[in-house]
Amino acid sequence: MKKTMRAGLMLMLACILLITTACGAPEQNQTPSDNSAGSSPDTPAASQDGSTEKVTLRIATFFAGVDPKAPWFNEYVIPTFNELYGDEIHLEIEEIAGEQNYVDKMRLLLSNDQLPDIVHPAQTITREVAEGGKALDLTPYLDANPDIKDIIAPKSLARNTMGDKIWGLPFEGSWIGLFYNKELLDQAGVAVPTTWDELMVACEELRASGIEYPMSFETAANAWTTSLMFSAMIGSSGSEGYDFMNTYDSTDFNKPYIEDAFTKITELLSYAAPDAIGGDYNKASMHFFNSESAFIANGTWMISEFSDPARAPEGFVDKVGVCAFPGNVALKTPMDGWVITAKDPAVQDAAWKFLSIVGSAEGQLSHLEYTATLPDSDKLEMTDAAKEKYPLLSEMYDALQGAQPIQYFSKLWSPAVVDALSNSYPALVYGQITPAEACQALTDAAAKG
């Protein structure tokens, strides 16, 4: 099936190339830019001895090792690119283990103006690259490639636009809900919670039934699963909280509904394993995979891990259910896109060729089939292969379809605020600060930028 997708993409690009060339329009994957040398910028440069030199394209990625996107990146994206453009473009791929390590290194390279030619989304790094003036304007490329531009969701296009320039190419959607272990809930006689009070009661009843730590949380790095729950608490608190979780770059966190969310999350943290304090996502997810906890907040991409023998026991996926967060909210966030940072026009064109594979309909649907991650485009339907492979994804789509959409912390708030947020959880648990003081800590962090 993966070879069929690559063949389909090659045929699609070849057909568009023939049509646009015959009509005198710019070639597919090429901007109508001027070339002072008189030849296409897509043509490899000739050396003095008459041989053709490949353009070198440098990419850094954490889609490696056990990362869920690694198979898609290494089995679909790179082979497809090499089949189409390997004769003219040489790829240099730097693998960086771990999302946080990737973000930290890209921030360092951004500060030194030494970024690779392409940076892909991770937390807010590509937006930081764009705000730093290092992202190439993709508008001419997208105007020359309407087959890609027309499938970008409007909210995602707005998210990846500054002024009149499109700086990022999105490729995936972000749907996040609450996964639960059906078997554990049944054993404890617990119904799927629809309110925060019901979730607290469920945790207590699960503990009484022998599940000592019903919640999967962590506080290291950006405290991912914990902060997702915290986001949902704010967003479900009422109209003000809902609006707050759909507003970028907030600076005042001294709100009663945020203070209340800190109170609730502190209570929920008491139902997590002790290693939640200082632990990372791998520890939090391990407890869920091992049926040691009953609830974990995460996105559609986790579905592929439920049936991965390297992560979960055989048959575990059949134990998993999914619902909206209490208060009937779901985290549906327009995602930041891939950026081109190359300065050389020939490398920029080579980078666009790479992005055109990632952001195309074929690329997004292959990503769906590999990772159980819904496409960015609402014009692309789930494939039959994806439905068959990930029935839980269809269940999640149905469960979250009618929920109120909010966004999540790391897409709305600055890195400084995210750091202050993750630092606040342990301090709250240990009684070192109050919920009101935690709100002030976020406000202070926002003021520092």
Structure report:
It is a single chain. With 449 residues, this protein is of the alpha+beta class. The protein has 21 helices and 11 strands. Strands 6, 7, 8, 9 and 11 form a 5-stranded mixed sheet that branches. β1, α2 and β2 form a beta-alpha-beta unit. α2 runs antiparallel to α16 and α12 packs across α21. It is globular, with a radius of gyration of 23 Å. The protein starts with a helix and ends with a helix. About 9% of the residues have low confidence.
Short description:
The protein has 21 helices and eleven strands. It is 47% helix and 10% strand.
Could you report the average pLDDT, rounded to the nearest whole number? 90
Terminal Cα span = 47 Å
Q: Note the total helix count.
A: 21
**What shape does the CA trace take?**
globular
Which residues sit in consecutive blocks of at least 5 with pLDDT less than 50? 11-50
Structural class: alpha+beta
- Tell me how many strands there are: 11
Largest sheet: 5 strands, mixed
Which percent band covers the strand fraction?
5-15%
Radius of gyration: 23 Å
How helical, in percent, are the residues? Answer: 40-55%
